[in-house]
Amino acid sequence: GAVVSQHPSWVICKSGTSVKIECRSLDFQATTMFWYRQFPKQSLMLMATSNEGSKATYEQGVEKDKFLINHASLTLSTLTVTSAHPEDSSFYICSAVPTGGYGYIQYFGAGTRLSVL
Amino acid sequence: KQEVTQIPAALSVPEGENLVLNCSFTDSAIYNLQWFRQDPGKGLTSLLLIQSSQREQTSGRLNASLDKSSGRSTLYIAASQPGDSATYLCAVRPETSGSRLTFGEGTQLTVNP
Questions:
Q1: What is the count of residue pairs from A and B with beta carbons less than 8 Å apart?
Q2: Interface of A with B in 33-92 (CB under 8 A)
Q3: A80 neighbors B8 (Cβ within 8 angstroms)
Q4: Is pLDDT at B103 greater than 60 in this prediction?
């Protein structure tokens, strides 16, 4: 149980285009999902907290107009990187918290590697 | 602001050795601490979760301890195997702020056959 699916696993795009990454909780509902960014050999940095039916909460220094988050259902959150540039190339990981789950444990997706040319 | 530090940053050991990974955190007001494993280019696999009221948790060859007052946790791996090679991350959840986690930088472990 508690499986989080992230799609795509790897995407290559041209500079200036937009890319959408999906995060789905397959066997549970998730009111809250998180989006992280990870550079090579570095730890996970929280980008934003996604709440179903409301606006996402972004961490300091994260451009909300560049990283659009939509959490329209209890099983799906999407991250859209708008007008991507090479410096946006990174590993993006999402996690989901089961609604009403004990301990607010996060379950992680397998990540999406974004390469912007 | 919570800061999580992991030492060492990298570790290489021969197969069969017992080893200890260290994690320290600056704010002791935590709800729980979690150890994860991350294989290259992959997501996170949860290994052990220790509630703030607990001292340790065990799963197979893994044992994690927590000293909340001193802001420290260790992950002990017994009889290491090449398949244990991965990056190990610790993360703390604060007493407040819901399920938000703060991660350490990780320890990259290589177990040589």
A1: 53
A2: 34, 41-46, 49, 91
A3: no
A4: yes
